[in-house]
Amino acid sequence: MLVVMSAHATEENVRAVCEKIQSLGYRPHPIPGAERTAIGITGNQGAVEAGTLEQMTGVQEVIRVSKPYKLVSRDVKQENTIVRFPDCDGSFGGHTLGIVAGPCSVESRQQAFTIAERVARAGARFFRGGAFKPRTSPYAFQGMGEEGLKIMAEIRDRFGLRIVTEALDYESLDLVAEYADVVQIGARNMQNYSLLKRAGRLRKPVLLKRGLSATLEEFLMAAEYILSEGNYEVILCERGVRTFADHTRNTLDLSIVPAVQKLSHLPIVVDPSHGTGKRDKVLSMSRAAVATGADGLLIEVHHDPDRALSDGAQSITCDQFDELMQEVRQIAAVVHRTVQETMTQAVAAKIAI
Amino acid sequence: MLVVMSAHATEENVRAVCEKIQSLGYRPHPIPGAERTAIGITGNQGAVEAGTLEQMTGVQEVIRVSKPYKLVSRDVKQENTIVRFPDCDGSFGGHTLGIVAGPCSVESRQQAFTIAERVARAGARFFRGGAFKPRTSPYAFQGMGEEGLKIMAEIRDRFGLRIVTEALDYESLDLVAEYADVVQIGARNMQNYSLLKRAGRLRKPVLLKRGLSATLEEFLMAAEYILSEGNYEVILCERGVRTFADHTRNTLDLSIVPAVQKLSHLPIVVDPSHGTGKRDKVLSMSRAAVATGADGLLIEVHHDPDRALSDGAQSITCDQFDELMQEVRQIAAVVHRTVQETMTQAVAAKIAI
Amino acid sequence: MLVVMSAHATEENVRAVCEKIQSLGYRPHPIPGAERTAIGITGNQGAVEAGTLEQMTGVQEVIRVSKPYKLVSRDVKQENTIVRFPDCDGSFGGHTLGIVAGPCSVESRQQAFTIAERVARAGARFFRGGAFKPRTSPYAFQGMGEEGLKIMAEIRDRFGLRIVTEALDYESLDLVAEYADVVQIGARNMQNYSLLKRAGRLRKPVLLKRGLSATLEEFLMAAEYILSEGNYEVILCERGVRTFADHTRNTLDLSIVPAVQKLSHLPIVVDPSHGTGKRDKVLSMSRAAVATGADGLLIEVHHDPDRALSDGAQSITCDQFDELMQEVRQIAAVVHRTVQETMTQAVAAKIAI
Amino acid sequence: MLVVMSAHATEENVRAVCEKIQSLGYRPHPIPGAERTAIGITGNQGAVEAGTLEQMTGVQEVIRVSKPYKLVSRDVKQENTIVRFPDCDGSFGGHTLGIVAGPCSVESRQQAFTIAERVARAGARFFRGGAFKPRTSPYAFQGMGEEGLKIMAEIRDRFGLRIVTEALDYESLDLVAEYADVVQIGARNMQNYSLLKRAGRLRKPVLLKRGLSATLEEFLMAAEYILSEGNYEVILCERGVRTFADHTRNTLDLSIVPAVQKLSHLPIVVDPSHGTGKRDKVLSMSRAAVATGADGLLIEVHHDPDRALSDGAQSITCDQFDELMQEVRQIAAVVHRTVQETMTQAVAAKIAI
C-alpha cells in the first residue's frame, strides 16, 4: 500500500498519516519527493482499508500494491498445472491442446450421438453439451436436466470423449459431478461465491468461465475461491467480455491468454462461439486463439444449427468443425503444440464393431 | 422479427427466406424498398432463432423487434407497483421515497444499534446491513451470518426499521427470508437464475441489484424470473456499472431511472455508495438520484467508517447522513415526493422510555 | 513512480533496478516488505518511461504516482476559475449557473430568432447553435457556416445572449472566434491537439467537451493543452461516455462533476441532450446534473423538433425548456446556486420596442 | 426504418403514424402482429429522423435498417481493394501481407537507419516512424517534424522501404504527403472530419486507425469521408479499443478483421503494439492477428527500447522482430498468405556496395 500526499500537504499532515498507519499496526515509510511525499506501508496483510487513509487531510490517493491472489499465482507454484484424465490422452495445460466440442444443449440422444461421433472423428477428446442452461428468459428452453447428463455418460462410454458440462446451482452441481468429467461454471456465476466454494470441495476439475465484465484480477480471485477449498484443478476460459462494440455479441479478449499465463500456473482455454456469437467468425477466432498460445478451445457444434434449440446462430456445422480442426492443427504446430489427428484406435475399433 | 436482405439479394433469395419463415410456422411480410427488401415476421412467440435466417444467402441482418419481458412491463400493468409493509409508513414506489441506510456489514450488536438509532432519527424507515457478504477474496471478512440477522431483527423491534439484507445462496435465502423484510439479491447474482426463481417463491419483497454489465433488458429479464414464479414485489436498484472510467469505482448510470419507469411498473432505487465507491461523492450523487425521480436510496452509513470491516471508503458518517437527508428532502420536494422528517412518534416514545 | 518487485525477486534483482534508476538520474528508495520489495523513485519529472523498468528481471509492476497535469490543477490555483463576460450577468463557475440553450444547428434566421427569444425569456444567458456540424456521415447536413455565425451575432445584439458555438478546424476556429463569445471544441476533437493549441492562443473562453471514452485524466490533460498556450478560460463539459448500455445514446457520467471539482479549479457544465440522446430523459437528467453541483447546463431546444435538420430526437421543445428552467431553478436553490428568472430588463425593454 | 408500436397502441395511433410517414414523403407498410403492429418505411434516403416518430403516441421504438455507408461497402464493389506501390512488391489487401515496422518516433538519423536496416533484412516492406506525435501531455516530446520526414525519405532511397507516417493536422498533412508513401490518420483523429476530407483529396493512400471507442459502423463511415472526396486507397487499422479491462493498455478487438472483410472491400491491418501496450504481448497478438486473416501488421520496433523517447514499453527489440517475422510467416502460410523472406536482391546489392 502506498499513500500519496497532495502537493499542499503539510509536514503535520504527513506525520498524522504515519501515526495512523502505526496505530493500525503497520509500518510507515515516508519518501519525500520534489513536489510531494509518498508513504509506503509494510507489515500489512493486504487488508488495510484504503478508505481509512484516503479521507485524511492532505492525502491525495492510496494505491494498493500487493495482489490478493495466492494459490493461483506463479509466486506459489511456478510450473504449469496440467489437468489430466485417467485412460485419456487429452489434457489441459500440457503439450497437446484440449479441444472441447459439442452442441450448446443436449436436445436428444440422437442429436448428441450424431454430433459426438463427428467431433470424435475430427480429433476432439472432450464433449460439451448443456443439460442445465442459464437462459436470459424464464420462458426459454432450460435444458434436459439429468436425462441429458445420462446421454452424455453414454457418449463417454461409446466415443471415449470426456464430458464437460455446466452446473448452475447446488442441485445441478451434485448431479453434474456425478456424471461429468469436468464441471463448468458459467460466466454469469463467476462471482457466485457459494457455488465456487462448493465446486472447490469436488474431486472433479472445474472449467471456470470469465464473467462478462471481470477484470483479470477478479477472474483469478474467482479461481482462488475454488483452490482455497482444496480443488487445484481449475481450467480458466475466456469467452468474450462486454464492451460498446456491436459487431459481435461479445468482444473476445485474446490478450488475456498471455496475461494469465504470465501470472498464473492454471491452464486457459478460449470459447470463440460465445466470444463472437456469430458462426462466420468462429473459425478465424479459433485460429487466433491457438496462435496466442491458448491451452485449448471450447466450440459449439451442431449437425443442423438452423434447428438448434439454443444458440444456433453461433454453432458451426460438423463439416466446419472438420475444417476448423485442420486449420487449428497447423496453427498449433507453429506454436509448438499439437492436436490429436482423430479418435484413438481403441475407440475407432469399438465403434466399427 | 425483421429480416433485412442485402442490396445484392435476388428475388430467388427473398423467396427462399419467405419459404423458410413459413416452414417454421410463421408468416412473412416482404417490404420491397428502393435499395433492398426487408421481410417482417409475424405469428412467432418471440422465439424464432435469428441465426437460422441470418446465415441464409442474401440475408444481411436479422433484427429482433418484440421484447422478451412480459410481467414486468407496463404493457401488462400500467400503474406503478408500490411495495408496502404492514404497520409502516415507508414504501417503495409511492409518493414517499424509500430510504434504506445502514452499515455495509453488521459487525456487532453495538455497532448496528448505534447506526440504526442515528438513521432512524434522521428519518430512514429501512435498515440495511450485511450478514452474508459476497467478497472478491475468500480470505476477507464474510459477515456474521445468522447472528447478524438476529441483531437486525432486534433493530426492527426497537427502532421500527424494516430490514433489507442480502442473500447469497439457498441457505442464506431461507434464513434471510425468515428474519428480514426485504431480501436483497446482489449485482453478482443478478443472473443467478436458480436463486432468482427461489426468490420468486418467497412471500417477501425482493430488492434486485443491477449486474455490473447488465443492459436494461437483461435487468428487466432478471426481475421477470422472480415475477414468473409468483412474487410480484420486486424493487430494482441501480448501483453503478462497469466502464473504462476510473475516477469512481463504478459508473452510476442514473438515466436508467427514467428508462425503467417508462417501460416497467416496478419501483427503482439508487445505491450511490457502491455506485461511486467514494465517500466524498455519495452526497452529490444522492441528490442527483432523487432529482431524476428515483423511488428511493440505499446508503452505506457507519458511525466510524475508518474502522469498518468492509467498504469503509464508501461509507458516510452518521453526521453526513443527517446532512444527506436534509438535502434529499429538499430535492424530493421539487420532484413532488417526500421523505419522512424523523422516526415515528410511536418509536420515539418507545426509545425514550 | 513505484516499482513493485515480484515475490521471487532476488536481492541482486533489486540492486540492479536501483542502479538502473540511478543511471537514469533519479533516486531509488527501496521499501522491503514481508512478501516483496517495492522501490520508490524520486527526483523524476514525471517522465520516467515505466517500460524501461517494467521489463527488468524480478519486476512485477511499475505504478505511476504523480499526475501529469499542472495548470488545470488545484495544486496550482486553489480558488475556482469564474469565466465572466463584459456587460453580462451570466458566467460559468460562479454562484449563478451558466445556462446555454438553443438548437443543434442554426437552420435559418427565423428558426434561430424564434428559439432565441424563447430561451432568453426563460432566463438563459447563453445561446448555442451549430454553424459547423461534425456529422458521422459525409452526406448529412453540415451546417450553415459563416451565414449561421452572422445570424447568431444578430441574436447577441437583439437578445443579449452570449454565443457558444463549435469550431471544427482551423478555418472554422478563426471564424467562430470572430463572431462567438465562447468557442466550443467538440467531443470528437478533444484530443485534436493542434486544434487545442490553436484554441489556447485565442482570447476567447473555450468550452471543451469530454471525449466519448476519455478518462478524467485525459480530459484534464486536453484542457492543459489550452491553458499551456496561455488561455486560462476553459469550461469543461460532460456529455456522456460510451459504454455497453443501450437504453441511452451515451451514458451520462455525472460523478465526474464532483471529481473534476475536487482536482481542478475549472468550471464544469453538463450536456444532457447529447448525454442521453432522448428527449424524454433531458429534464430528469438536467435536474440531476444541477443537483450534483454542476456549474451549468447545455441544452438543445427547438421550436419544432420533428422538423429539425439534426438531432431532433434529443431536442426539447420551447415549452419543455420553460418547464426545465423552473425545475432547475428550484434544484439550484437547494445546492445554494441560482438561475436567472428571465431576460434582463434592458433586453426586455429593447425587444418590446 | 421500422416503427414498432406498443401493445397498447390504438388503430388511431397506427393511422396517425402512417399519415406522418406519408407527410414526410415516404411510404408506410403496416405489419399487424399478434401483440403489436410494426410499420415499415420505404422511399426514404436513410435520412428520416427517427426522433420525429419516436415521440408520437403509441410508438415504442424506431429501428434503423439501412446502413449509411456506400462507397466502402461490398454492395458497391465486391472485389477486394489492393493498395499497391510502384516498383515495390509490398501491398495491402493482396496475397502478401503488408508488414509495417519501425520506431514509435524518429529520434535521430542513426536510430532510424539502424532500425530500418534490421526490419528490411527481416522482410518488412514498409517503415513506420513518427515525425509528428499526438501526445497526451503538452510537455512530452512531440516529434522531430520535417527533419524526421527527411530522414525517412532517405530510408526509402536506401532500403527500398515505403514510408508510413502520421499526420496530425493540415500543416503536417501537406508535409507528410510530400515525403511519405502512406499517410496515417491516428485513432484520436478518426472523427476529425476536416482532416479526413483533406486526406480524401490527396493522391496518396491513407492508413486510418480505429478510434478508441469507434463502432464498426463509425469506423467505416470515417473511411467513407475519405472515399467520398475521391481517394479510394484507404487501409483500415485495428489498434485496440477502450474497455474496462486493465491487463492491457487497450483491448485488441481482432474480431473486427472478419467483420470488416465481410462488409467492406478495404484492406484491414492490425497494430498489436498500441493494441496491447505491452512488449511481452506483441508477439502472441501478432500471430493471432495474422491467424484471423488480417491484411498486415503495424509493429513498433526499437533497437534500444529502454531509451526510446516514446512508447518504449510497447516497442519490441530488433531481435524480437526477427522472431516475430519467422512466426508470422508460418502462420500466414496456414491462412494461404505470404510474407517476404528478406529485403529484395536489388536493395541488398545496393546496401552491400
Task: Give an overview of the whole structure.
4 copies of one chain form a homotetramer. Chain A is of the alpha/beta class and 353 residues long. Chain A has 2 domains: 2-63, Alpha-Beta Plaits (2-Layer Sandwich); 83-352, Aldolase class I (TIM Barrel). Chain A contains 12 helices and 14 strands. In chain A, helix 6 crosses helix 7.
The CATH class designation of the largest domain in chain A is: Alpha Beta
* Low-pLDDT residue intervals, each spanning 5 or more residues of chain A: none
- CATH level 4 superfamily of the largest domain in chain A: Aldolase class I
**Percentage of residues assigned to helices of chain A:** 25-40%
* Beta fraction of chain A: 15-25%
Main sheet of chain A, how many strands, which sense, barrel? 8 strands, parallel
CATH architecture annotation of the largest domain in chain A? Alpha-Beta Barrel
Helix and strand pattern of chain A: EHEEHEEEEHEHEHEHEHEHEHHEHH
Largest interface, C-beta closer than 8 angstroms, per-chain residues:
A-B, 49 and 49 residues
Q: What is CATH's topology name of the largest domain in chain A?
A: TIM Barrel
Number of helices of chain A: 12
By DSSP, the count of extended strands of chain A is 14
The class by helix and strand makeup of chain A works out as alpha/beta
